[in-house]
Amino acid sequence: MTSPQESPDALRDKVAVVTGAAGGLGRAISRRLHAAGARLALVDRDEAGLADAAAEFGDDAATFAVDLTDDARTEALPGEVRDRLGTLDILVNNAGVRQIASILDLTPDEWRHTLDVDLTAPFVLSRAAIPGMIEQGRGKIVNIASITGELAFADRSAYCVAKAGIIMLTKTITLEFAARGIWCNAIGPGVVETPMTSEYFRSGPMRESIERNAPMKRWAQPEEIAGPVAFLCGPESDYVNGTTLFVDGGWNSAKTY
Ligand SMILES: NC(=O)c1ccc[n+]([C@@H]2O[C@H](COP(=O)([O-])OP(=O)(O)OC[C@H]3O[C@@H](n4cnc5c(N)ncnc54)[C@H](O)[C@@H]3O)[C@@H](O)[C@H]2O)c1
């Protein structure tokens, strides 16, 4: 049986904003939403990567070169998306950075930068997108969190704190706006093979840890995260709100790494 998400019509007439669209997960999410019928507003600070990502979607995608740490620029984005694409129905807060350093080596500026990109930007963008979504009667927000929002990993303090924060932001947006037609859910990936994590897979402790501790003994490919994101963007998840769906091969259940 074909589910609505698998049909090319599930997101027909919808416009989806995907941040971090030039990155590994952003590209897979964009592809999946487009396959379900959505037109795309692709956002990233990496202009060349953005152009490359947009090339496969032709007239169905518009690009927005934005540094999401620029609050004013980020706040203006939903209006620009509506001007260029006519509407804004879905927001996927996917852009992220992650620094690996001990708390003793991480500077306050580095800490702030991670929180700015991974937590404050989704807040600023959601805050700017929600009023228009309420006005049109319906809007879905999907935040890309992480298993690190629930499990503490050494040398990733700012990242873990930001991801724990976005899980809570997801719940608070739901509490405030669910009755006005807003859905806000999060996806909590385990380790996914993308440019962010490419160093893990050659060798070293993270690779060994995944192979030893992850219940499925492997990491994910971006497409395995993109499907669940599409589910949370589409009509089949209409009674799912405020939740974080961990897409981690069972790792979060094992609570070991
Ligand atoms: N790869 C994993 O294992 C994994 C696991 C859990 C969660 N995640 C999350 O998934 C999301 C995507 O990660 P990825 O693995 O695709 O990483 P990636 O590095 O391939 O992509 C991240 C993208 O975000 C963009 N970006 C970074 N800072 C930005 C800024 N200030 N303004 C605009 N764009 C900015 C980058 O240019 C890049 O294109 C992130 O939120 C990450 O934390 C990834």
UniProtKB/TrEMBL annotation:
InterPro entries: KR_dom, NAD(P)-bd_dom_sf, SDR_fam. GO terms for biological process: fatty acid elongation. SMART domains: PKS_KR. Pfam families: adh_short_C2. Keywords: Oxidoreductase. One of its GO terms (molecular function) is oxidoreductase activity, acting on the CH-OH group of donors, NAD or NADP as acceptor. It comes from the Bacteria. Residues 14-150 form the Ketoreductase domain. PANTHER family: OXIDOREDUCTASE, SHORT-CHAIN DEHYDROGENASES/REDUCTASES FAMILY MEMBER. Belongs to the short-chain dehydrogenases/reductases (SDR) family. This is Gluconate 5-dehydrogenase. It comes from Pseudonocardia sulfidoxydans NBRC 16205.
